[in-house]
Write the structure tokens for this entry.
Amino acid sequence: MDPTTTYAWCFSHGRMHKFVAPEGPWCSASWLPLGEDEEAAYSAKAARVGDAQFMDDLPLEVQVEVVDECAGQG
Ligand SMILES: [Zn+2]
């Protein structure tokens, strides 16, 4: 586990992002932080939103939830 690495699912690009310090998050779209471990991040993503790739793939109530947790917006 590398504490300088953060995995995040990006609902704007429809794929996993890997942010590495000190560069940090380079994507300014809507992404859901999923921790430091790649495998765990994919599991967590599947558990939260299943196969959904983009925000539009999610039911509205889940979108609202996810948007709240998404970082890097705007
Ligand atoms: Zn992105």
About this structure: Residues 38-49 form the longest helix (12 residues). The beta strands are 5-10, 15-20, 31-33. The CA atoms of residues 28 and 74 lie 6 Å apart.
